[in-house]
Design brief:
alpha/beta; three-stranded mixed beta sheet; three-stranded parallel beta sheet; 10 strands
């Protein structure tokens, strides 16, 4: 409803403005075909069309984002609004050039089972001597990007806006990683910093494919000037170092996944430490 309220406010008070929606790659799900940037060319029974890419959200959160995208797309057609939908992948990292200027500007670092993203969460677990909680088989693959690139993508979308009546979609990722690959990278990085990092498979609290095809087209932002910061030893060491510096502020009770998608219970998944 908030998204619809924003659309109505734009239509009434600033129809010429450019709306930028921070969406999510989770809208697409994990289809067994390449994920295009928002739209796909379809040929069916001898006829062709360009249609919105099918959405298969795997959670209520992702479904809400899908509804937002559909409402915005309709508003661009009905009211001629201009919109860019940034389908953001999993963000890692903590610092940008601006937040590094003073300790009071440091971003929060989520590490719980709901808001904590995979790589950041694993780095905090490693710093605390807590086993990396790999869900199930660990073959889940997603698109990732550095927090600095997240900010840059929004800047690019602002500087080069969509046309009036256009629903523009950018897949905001720079590379793909599986959970297994991330666990191995964090384990290796922890070793360089003197940490003994253990990886443990825990029952998957989510409803998702644990092994699947995943390939995403993400050329639009690159063509508009994005120069990605790809994941390497320096960023891993940086996030791990940050987690180690502030590990005394962490709450161990928040680490085990507390929400199981198939149940209403808040029972945590047990992980032996």
């Amino acid at each position: 409803l908030d998204n619809i309220n924003v659309l109505y406010a734009i239509q009434e008070h600033a129809p010429e403005c450019h709306l930028i929606k921070l969406g999510t790659m989770g809208e697409y799900g994990t289809p067994n075909i390449d994920i295009e940037e928002g739209f796909i060319e379809i040929e069916h029974k001898g006829r062709k069309d360009r249609l919105p890419y099918p959405k298969q959200g795997n959670s209520w959160y992702h479904l809400s984002k899908i509804h937002d995208s559909h409402n915005i797309h309709f508003a661009t057609k009905a009211w001629g609004l201009a919109c860019t939908d940034l389908n953001q992948g999993v963000v890692y990292g903590v610092m940008t050039d601006e937040t590094a200027m003073h300790p009071d500007l440091i971003n929060r670092l989520d590490y719980d089972g709901v808001f904590g993203t995979a790589l950041n969460r694993f780095c905090v677990q490693a710093a605390l001597g807590y086993p990396l909680t790999k869900y199930g088989k660990g073959g889940q693959t997603r698109g990732f990007l550095d927090i600095r690139d997240t900010v840059r993508c929004i800047e690019i979308a602002c500087a080069q806006p969509a046309e009036q009546g256009e629903m523009r979609v950018f897949n905001q990722i720079t590379e793909f990683w599986s959970v297994n690959q991330l666990c191995d990278l964090v384990q290796e990085a922890g070793g360089r910093l003197g940490l003994d990092v253990e990886i443990k498979s825990v029952p998957n609290p989510r409803v998702e494919a644990e092994e699947h095809y995943y390939n995403v087209v993400h050329s639009n932002l690159l063509e508009l000037g994005l120069e990605p910061h790809l994941l390497g030893d320096s960023i891993l060491d940086s996030v791990l170092g940050f987690a180690m510096q502030y590990k005394d502020t962490a709450d161990l009770k928040q680490i085990a996944p507390a929400v199981k998608w198939t149940e209403f219970s808040k029972k945590k998944v047990a992980v032996e430490v």
